[in-house]
Specification:
single chain, alpha+beta, 2 domains, two-stranded antiparallel ribbon, 3 helices, elongated
C-alpha cells in the first residue's frame, strides 16, 4: 500500500527499473495542459508542456516562438492581427 500522500489521482505512476533487476513504482506530478491561442483556442506550436520549475531553467528562446505575439496567438491569428493593424 502506498503512503497516504501518494494515494492521489493527481500523481501519475511511473514504473522504474532499479538495481537488483526489480521494478519500482514512482509517483510523479502530471504535466500541465498544452498552451492555447488567446483568440481561437488552437494549440500553440513551439511551446513546451513542462512544469513551472522546468520552464524557469529553460532559455527564453526555448519557451516560445520568436515572432510577434509568440506564445499568445497562433500563427493564423497573428497574421490576421497584423493585417488588421496595417489596415487601420
Amino acid at each position: 500500500m502506498p503512503a497516504p500522500r501518494l494515494r492521489s489521482r493527481s500523481l501519475r505512476k511511473v514504473f522504474r527499473k532499479v538495481s537488483g533487476g526489480r521494478v519500482s513504482l514512482h509517483y510523479k506530478k502530471k504535466k500541465p495542459k498544452a498552451a492555447r491561442c488567446g483568440n481561437c483556442g488552437a494549440l500553440l506550436k513551439g511551446i513546451p508542456r513542462e512544469l513551472p520549475f522546468r520552464m524557469r531553467s529553460m532559455a527564453k528562446t526555448k519557451k516560445r516562438p520568436e515572432r510577434p505575439y509568440g506564445g499568445v496567438l497562433c500563427s493564423k491569428c497573428m497574421r490576421k492581427e497584423i493585417i488588421n493593424k496595417v489596415r487601420q
